[in-house]
Structure formats: structure tokens, C-alpha cells
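Lab notebook, entry 290. We have the chain sequence and a SMILES string for LNRAV4D5, and the next step in the workflow is to get a structural model of the bound complex before anyone spends time on docking refinements. Request logged below.

Task: model protein plus LNRAV4D5, output C-alpha cells.
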Amino acid sequence: MAQTKIGVIGGSGLYEIEGLQDAVWVKVETPWGAPSDEVLTGRLDGVEMVFLPRHGRGHVHSPTEVPYRANIDALKRLGVTDVVSVSACGSFREEMAPGDFVIVDQFIDRTFAREKSFFGTGCVAHVSVAHPTCPRLGDACETAAREAGINVHRGGTYLAMEGPQFSTLAESRMYREAWGADVIGMTNMPEAKLAREAELCYASVAMVTDYDSWHPHHGEVDISDIIAILMGNADKGRAMVSRLPALLGADRAPCPHGCDRALDHAILTAPERRDPDLVAKLDAVAGRVL
Ligand SMILES: CSC[C@H]1O[C@H](OP(=O)(O)O)[C@H](O)[C@@H]1O
Ligand SMILES: Nc1ncnc2[nH]cnc12
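Result returned:
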């Protein structure tokens, strides 16, 4: 049976995790450039784990400049099977309060200044992202969060904005009232799309820091308020992550939702028309089918 390897992408406030056995920071090179930082590898409860700080230690990369393709490639290259994305977010729902976690299951992608695919001229592929997150991995995140005593909401739509500025009041109201988004952040796209292209199970845990700017009693979003909440959220995020290995187990059955077979029928470019340079770059991401 295949072995589980959990990849955790830590967002704002979550730049390391503790308690890994044989923990070592490792530099990974990818055909898509350097990932956000070195990755922390180790084992917890007999399960291999890899941690990558999305913005780099010390928060170096802006949401637009995070090297999303290199990050996902690096995790895949290291043998990661399941990616848990942990992110700060604003909330559009009264009941999704600062300090709560939301297991996101849908996205609205409003980003526009990022590379969104590993594929392109010389190797064209179309994967489905109708269901962009993995329910099996979401189950584990939900259980882990509940066990850690976190107020967790299952299901929610994450509006991915370009940033780095926060939304205007008009945008905030539109996303909430007309578009039905539940939370807002700047990083889960194209991350989730790339994880699907790389045949990785992907779950997004959004940690609420604020009510964006729509809320009549909370005023506009303020970075100093966010930072105050972020620190507590990061501790809760670590508590959740530390429970995942025991819940997922070391032996891994194929994903019942097909995340790990997303490329089975996705590549359209005829073998004789494929660009050998691009095919070489896809060795980790799509090596299974190329
Ligand atoms: C902390 S303020 C905005 C910043 O926080 C979120 O980052 P991440 O998703 O990596 O946790 C948000 O997307 C912005 O990048
Ligand atoms: N209100 C907000 N908008 C976008 N990204 C965020 N990250 C945390 N809070 C946010």
C-alpha cells in the first residue's frame, strides 16, 4: 500500500511547526524556480511530514509573488500525497468569527497576476476543479480541529483576491451579498488548482482573523487587529496539524474522490506534438501519465 506523506503549507503567522522527529530544513530545487523557502521535513506518529511556509520565514513573499508552482512541485517532488493549506482569512459571515476555522470547499478566483497552470503550449491539459478540495482530507482536518477544541465550520466558499490591499467596502459587500462568498484571502488560488494538476489531495483550512470591511460594528479591516488574532490562530493551527498524522495513518488507500488520478484523461496534446522541454519540467507533477 502507498505511504501517506502530509504536506502542510503554512500561511500568515504559521512559519514553522514543532514536534517533528528528525526535523531538518531542506532546500528543494524545481523546474519552476525556488519554492518560498526551505521545507521542514520529519515524522510525526510514524507518518512522514513536510512543512512549507508560504510566505517564507520572516514573511518575505507577497500573495502575488508567492512561487505557487514551485511550492506545489516541491511538495510533489518530495513524495507528498496530501496537502493541507492553512491560511488567514477575513469572514463574510457573522457566525464565522475571528478565531474560528473554516474547512473551505469552494473557491471564487479573482486573482489575475499569477501563473495558474503547470501546462501550456506543447503540453495542454484540462483538469476539473468543480470540486477543488478533497473531502477525505477535509474530514481529517475537521476532526483534528474539533479534537483540538477549535470552533470549526465545515464547508465554505473562499474568495481569492489579488491583493495586497484589502477589499473596498463595495467589493466586500458584493462578495458577501451577491456572490455568496463566506471567507476572503489572497493565496488559495492558484494553489488549489495547481495541487489538482499535480494530483495531490488538497484541503484548505481558513483561520478567521477579521470581518473584512462589510460588518457594520467592526469597521474596516485593520492589520494590527489581524496580527493580534493571527498569533492565537497559529497556535490552534499547530494543534490541529499535530493531530493529522494519527488520523490519516501511514498506509494510504487511493483517494476515493480521484484527486490522485486527476490527469488520467486530462492531457490533450498528441504525444508527437509535445514539447520535450515542457515534458521534462513536468517530471514530478505529471510523470505518472507522461
Ligand atoms: C495577514 S493579512 C493578509 C495576508 O494573510 C493571508 O495570507 P495566507 O493566506 O498566506 O495566510 C492573506 O491571504 C494575505 O496574504
Ligand atoms: N480581510 C481579509 N482580506 C484578505 N485577506 C485576508 N487575510 C486575513 N484577512 C483578510
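Notes for the group: The chain has a mean pLDDT of 97. Worth checking against the assay data. The chain has seven helices and 13 strands.
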